[in-house]
Amino acid sequence: MRFLKDYFYIITLLSITNETAAAKIQPKIATHPIANTILTQFSDAYGRKSKKYIAPLIIKSVGPHALTSFCSKKINALDVYVTSKKLTPEDLVSCSNEGINDFIELRMGFGAIIALASPELNLKNISQQDLYKIVAKFDYKNDITIPNATQIWHDVSKNGDLLTSAPILVFVPRKASSLRDIFEDRILASGCQTRPGITKIRSEKPKLYKELCLDNRSDNVLTEVNLSDKDSTPLALLARKKGIITFAPPSALLQTELAKNLVAINGFKPTIDMIKSEKYPLSAPIYLYVKVSSLKASPGLRSFLKYIYSMQNKDHSALDSSGYMPPSPEEMAEQFHLIMQGKANYRLDEPKPAENTTLSPTALEPNWPDTSHAMTLNNVHQSVGPSEPLSSITEQP
To answer: What ranges does the record give for the region Disordered, renumbered to this chain (predicted)?
Structure first.
């Protein structure tokens, strides 16, 4: 009998240990769509280079379900919550209810997408609402969903007399391409919020919300392309086709040949300063909220965050095509210092004033993966090939 008791005790202990190890071995990060591609590419690069730790599992979606998981003490809870707005104590009330009050708030630069138009359109400015109206798949009138029938620039807005009567031709990032996440976040999802009653639709009719806010039209007006392909770069498209509008990452602002094609949004011209001041509507800051308890429990999470903010990290430039603008070297050093300290700079029991306190509406609700069981090769990034490990920046807890 004593043997059986000991046997079941050991089995139970191993089960608990394995679950705890799974939570600590692979941190979990839920991200607003604006940062999904950026964080996924960081995770992939880190996974190839790190010999000691497994890269985080990146989950695209931030919504009520994700916040509930982030504000949980369960083994399978989220460790990091990524959004395009600062969080307030009201946003994190469920964390406070669980006794989770200590966080590290990190800034990770900006996500942005630039609108470009052919000179013959004479399109110097367009509202975010009209831009959404051009690319949206459906219209919604009198509780009826109908295909988007807008075909001519003149019909886009009430100021149609200022626009040409030429047919609309739009080239957007293809699904699964590098700039697509920011296109969905800043143009589709954000533009959709101008629809009357969209908040009610989102809460009561989530399927309809996705149809209205998360997909672009597929008729002759709009073409999906990989803007990184040689023949489909913004410069190539604008040189080859007349009367079009297309999109580009912020690096387009450094190309003098594209200066004549830049389009202001809501009256704000796309410039580096406008993006950094958070005034340009097709851009947003990226904030990471890290639970201090997770940082202490997971050396791999600390290592991954140190990798992102290390001055030795050369992978930031590779994310340019994804619409990523990294922080300045000074900001990088400041965020790195916060990670090294591991102390809360955001406490719910001592809240600090937060700018931009209203969270932008969520683009997606999560299809929450079951990560409570053993991890599969699909969500574990392994070291491959002869890659050398990173320096002690990523290998030491």
So the answer is: 348-374
